[in-house]
Each structure stands twice: as C-alpha cells, then as structure tokens.
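Work Package 4 report. The design task specified in the project plan requires that, given a folded chain encoded as structure tokens, an amino acid be chosen for each position. We show below one input record used in the internal validation round.
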C-alpha cells in the first residue's frame, strides 16, 4: 500500500479522479484533479438513518457542495431527521420548504429540482425505478445496497450502469466495505495469489433481530408494511439480501467478482412467529455457493440469522492452496511459510466512499461500480431463492427469473395482504 501521510489522505480523496470501479483493490487514493469551484447540489431521497448519514457524509466530502432538496414518503420522518442534518451541515444545508417533497413521486421532484448528485436510500424495492429516473435526467447518483430485491430489478440496474458510463455519470453503490483500507489491502493480496487458488470461503452475518415497528392506529396495510419495511420480502429482499449481502459481496470480491455457478440452501423461521411484526421473511439462512475455479472449484459457505440471544459472528474467511485469510476482522493472511497482518491506517469507509465519489466527479471520471454491485446483489437473491424453494438453482436461471416482487398497487387506503411465508419444497422457482 502506498505510504501517504495521514494529513495528506483527505486531500487526495477530495481532489482525485476515480479509481478502478470494478475490483476496488489496494489503491484507495485518487489522482489530483484540476480545481473546480462549482457548487455541486445534492438531493436526498429517503431520509432514514442510513439516508441522513449518507447526506451528512456527502456534505463533508467536498468544500463546494450543498444539500438542497429532500424527499420521503412521510413528513414526520423529514421533520425528525432534517433537524439533525441541518445542525451537521450548517451552511451546506440549504433545503427549503419549496425543496422538501413528500409522497411516491418525491424522488422525481428532488431530481427535477436542479440537483447534480442524488442520494437514493429508500427501501430497496424502489431502487431501480429511482436510479432509472436519475440517469434519464443526467444526475450523478449514490444508491444504497442492495440494488434491487428481485431479478428483473437487477437486470434493470445492470442496464442503467452501462447507460451511466455512456453518459459519464457517477454511479456508486453502498457496498461500503469496498472502501475500507484494510479490506482493500487484504483482498488485493488474495487476488494476487497470497492464499493460492481459493478452495473454500466461510462467511457469517449472525446477530439479533433488528428494529421492527408495531402497527399504529390509522395506518393502512401499505403504510404498515412500508414503515416496517425490513420485515417484508417485497420491500427488503429478506435479510440475506438487505443485510447479510455485505458478506456475500466480500466472497464475490475474493473470487474476482465472478458469479457462482449455482447455490443450494436451507432456511426458515424459528423465532419470527408473528406476521404482523415480522412480515414474511426468514430469520436464518445457510447457503452453499459453487464457483468454477482452478482444480475442483471453490465453495462459499454462508450463514446468517436474526435471532436474539444467539452468539454473534460477522466474518469472511478465505482458504486457498497456499494459506488462509481472515478478510473481515483480523485482516490477516497466514501462509505455509509466512504470515502478514494489516498494520496501516484505518478509515471511516462511509466517509471515504463519498470522498471518492465527489473527487471522481470533480475529475470528470465518475466512479461506477454498478455492474459489480448488481452481481453481488443477484448472488444474495440466488441464495434466497435456493433457501425458499429448497432446490439447486443456477446463477443464470436466477438472473433470468421472472419473479417480480412489486405489489399490485400503491394505494394507502386499499387492503394489501402480506404474502404467505415461503415453504422449502413447496414454494416454486419462478
């Protein structure tokens, strides 16, 4: 890794051009660009916890930026979090009543308000639609992971990533670990052959249940589901896609972003016993992915759960013909004859991703990791499909799936039933 003094690192990030968008390996610093005093206007769509955090980081990523528009489905969320953003952004917070938008079309109004960069952090089901409008309007975008909840959405984002490149637009996903200095160094070494040919990988995202919102009086079915979005398949893609996808993305990284051939899996609900609270998602998954690789190929074993009172684990381990790596936590590689551990500077990966996005825009070489992000999302969806159906499913079949999870309507007043919980061996692949 290049030895750059800590005092110089932020300047590199603020004034640089894009690094290689695909692998994001061991070059977290970007070359100096010509000075550009244009104020870049930022819009935020989806002002939840991650959205407000991303907006604050975007305001801190460049000297000449301003947050000028906010959109969300719910006025109370804007009122709650905009006060925090205003305090953090100070003079860079320039949102007015006229540039605050509510409703399902808020994303269009934010993008049409004259912003240069839009942050898209609504529940994942809406991601492809919102990204498509941003690219159509020529606006750079940062969008949280996952990029979609189903295969049609993933295919759409792959198309949009290519269009963004053609239009020279920034197109950055929220796969934040790809912007973490220790992991860039570890995965760079893995891809350079430090562990030899990869034989197996072990990844975990085991923890307790995350927030759930009980239904309140006056909420219709649609509002109750959107307010509690992480519990509903159509909104979140289930926890393996919405949360554990970070570990799956790191397995993809270790394999050079090549998709697996197929997956087999199991999963279900052991503690999520109330559909009003927990919707129709699983509370645990176990997936085996098979990659084509040297020799017999590589297998990735993924385990994730949301169960209170259970032992936690968040790790990615890579085993090869020459050694082993703890790629997530210890950032170490143990070879047959030597050992290495990352001893360099750590960083705030959330801030770094925005620093690099804005630096790349300033340099006229916008960052684009859309196809990589879409592929990682699809690998997560593949694991979910295999667990739901109990069948062996190929990546190609999964990518070409016709299953569209979007509900039949978006009417606040009409009934909207929660689909039944998938049953392995009964639920069919579509």
């Amino acid at each position: 890794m290049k030895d750059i003094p800590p005092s110089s690192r932020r300047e590199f990030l603020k004034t640089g051009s894009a690094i290689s968008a695909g692998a994001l390996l061991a070059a977290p610093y970007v070359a100096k660009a010509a000075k550009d005093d244009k104020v870049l206007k930022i819009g935020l769509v989806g002002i939840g916890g991650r959205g407000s955090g991303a907006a604050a980081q975007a305001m801190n990523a460049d000297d000449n930026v301003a947050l000028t528009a906010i959109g969300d489905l719910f006025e109370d969320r804007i009122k709650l979090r905009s006060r925090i953003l205003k305090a953090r952004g100070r003079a860079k917070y320039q949102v007015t009543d006229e540039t605050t938008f509510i409703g399902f079309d808020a994303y269009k109004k934010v993008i049409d308000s004259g912003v240069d960069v839009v942050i898209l952090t609504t529940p994942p089901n809406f991601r492809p639609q919102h990204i498509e409008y941003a690219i159509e309007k020529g606006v750079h975008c940062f969008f949280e992971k996952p990029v979609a909840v189903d295969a049609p959405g993933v295919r759409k984002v792959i198309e949009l990533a290519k269009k963004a490149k053609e239009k020279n637009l920034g197109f950055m996903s929220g796969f934040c670990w790809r912007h973490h200095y220790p992991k860039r160094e570890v995965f760079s070494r893995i891809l350079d052959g430090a562990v030899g040919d990869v034989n197996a990988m072990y990844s975990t995202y085991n923890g307790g249940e995350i927030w759930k919102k009980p239904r309140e009086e006056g909420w219709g079915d649609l509002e109750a589901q959107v307010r509690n979005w992480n519990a509903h398949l159509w909104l979140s893609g289930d926890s393996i896609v919405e949360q554990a996808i970070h570990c799956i993305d790191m397995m993809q990284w270790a394999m050079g972003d090549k998709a697996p051939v197929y997956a087999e899996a199991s999963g279900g609900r052991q503690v999520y016993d109330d559909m009003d609270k927990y919707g129709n998602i699983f509370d645990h998954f176990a997936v085996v992915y098979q990659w084509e690789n040297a020799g017999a190929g590589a297998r990735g074993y993924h385990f994730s759960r949301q169960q209170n009172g259970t032992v936690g684990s968040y790790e990615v381990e890579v085993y090869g013909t020459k050694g082993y790596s703890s790629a997530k936590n210890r950032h170490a590689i143990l070879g047959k004859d030597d050992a290495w551990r990352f001893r360099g500077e750590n960083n705030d990966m959330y801030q770094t991703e925005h620093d690099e996005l804005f630096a790349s825009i300033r340099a006229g070489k916008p960052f684009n990791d859309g196809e990589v992000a879409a592929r990682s999302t699809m690998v997560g969806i593949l694991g979910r499909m295999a667990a739901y159906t109990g069948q062996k499913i190929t990546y190609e079949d999964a990518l070409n799936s016709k299953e569209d999870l979007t509900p039949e309507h978006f009417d606040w007043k009409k009934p909207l039933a929660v689909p039944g919980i998938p049953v392995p061996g009964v639920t069919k692949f579509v």
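The chain has two domains: 6-178+349-369, 180-348+377-399. Validation will be extended to a larger panel in the next phase.
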